[in-house]
Amino acid sequence: RMDKTIADYECTVVKRERIDGKLGEHQYMHAKVRNKPFSVYMYFLAPDDVKGREAIYVEGQNNGKLIGHDSGFKGRLLKRVFLDPTSTLAMSGQRYPITKFGIRNLTQELVDVGEHDKQFGECEVKYFKGAKVQDRVCTCIQVVHPTPRKNFRFHLARVYLDDELQIPIRYESYDWPQKEGGQPVLLEEYTYMKLKLNVGLKDADFDPDNPNYNFQ
Prior knowledge:
globular
């Protein structure tokens, strides 16, 4: 249904990820996403160490590379670079490459993980109506694997499905507690806020020469 009804969208994304065992800060970014061809523009809003960073990726263009730039000393912009999305530099501070960004990719990943996990059992699923993500009313789908197994990627995960839009707007997952009776350990969380669907994004929205962007 999403493939048939959602061509593109703009939003604010808030994410937090645990990388190499360390939980990072919340990162905030403005994003534009077009589903065909898959295209992403992102501008980092916070925290200060990434503020001003921009990245563009368009499937089938630029030899498969993303185009990005960072903010250097005192906010001075560094020149644009072309990076393999899975390269060490592009993946620095990121759990997933830009090619996996967005609601459509999140949904596909949830489907794939669900299909994988259900063959092993040991999966408790509950639904909670009336959950809130800011001002959006959602249905929360909670999945728990009670016992640590190598087959499972998480102990607990929650998907927040927007009741009106019928798409996931928040996902969070947790590892098993480090000691018996302890709290689950946050692995990752992603929230899509201020969603505007089908805004009519054009090629110019994914062009680093767009005068509204700061690529040099």
